[in-house]
């Protein structure tokens, strides 16, 4: 099968969408499919436009300058596909201008399409003083996904929410975790010494972008409230973002270590004891599965990956999704219970590891591949060669 895989983020950019996109492309190629990767060209790259990859134009995203949006016209994409061979299916993994153009071009050519719903961009508006703009963003996302023959969402919860808002043709496809890379065996006493903690101390960990929509401040506030009554408690923050300097000033006792990747990231997970995931906007949150695989006591809101994989009090601790002071108190309760159950050989942490081992990437990607094949077979039609602006 020939697949045009369209994404506006890809390594070396580090985020859940880019890393999942790379893993997916690698799986599809390894399964014998011909994948044409279409993505924005980074400033340090040369141009490329062939059957395997098109690096199109683009620019930095205003609120995320380290990420880029792609720019192409439907006509340009149609010309590329006619020259290199029409794909059997076009898959858009991000909803930016490039994803829109690709879906529009595919429809004009009669090519089956699919799309991922990975990010609640409309929910970000309120975190940046643009709450009035949320209906506009939601309307754009609904129109974009209406062009797809099938839309993949990571949880049944999100499928219900989107269905209620008029999204159609939704297919639930979870995420996986590399349980060999993220494992309790990566625990490193030398790293803990660098953090100035001994085995008698407990380390709380946050991993993610330091931005308003991630609610990172709540993780640090929770640590401060707990450390006031739990001497010896430590906090390590992995990640970067626009709020880092402000959070470092507000929480000088926390240790900020910046972005970590690969085995270094796995070492940081395994060397901690409690994982705090305070986001209420993530559609999934891959870091939750990584923390479970590392055998940490997870505290999170009952949504996304935590809502799907965590059983409260069994393999992690959940707080009901809520706002304001209620959210702070609910999350504090979950974090307190996680801390109480954070002995390295405790049953909760052992169960967390067991749960993550069941979330196998190979199975997830095989199901994705099968769904793409079904969509391609069901959606084939005679190409239409009408002009597209």
Automatic annotation (TrEMBL):
<feature type="domain" description="Glycosyltransferase subfamily 4-like N-terminal">
    <location>
        <begin position="14"/>
        <end position="181"/>
    </location>
</feature>
<dbReference type="Pfam" id="PF13692">
    <property type="entry name" value="Glyco_trans_1_4"/>
</dbReference>
<dbReference type="InterPro" id="IPR028098">
    <property type="entry name" value="Glyco_trans_4-like_N"/>
</dbReference>
<dbReference type="Pfam" id="PF13439">
    <property type="entry name" value="Glyco_transf_4"/>
</dbReference>
<protein>
    <submittedName>
        <fullName>Glycosyltransferase family 1 protein</fullName>
    </submittedName>
</protein>
<dbReference type="InterPro" id="IPR050194">
    <property type="entry name" value="Glycosyltransferase_grp1"/>
</dbReference>
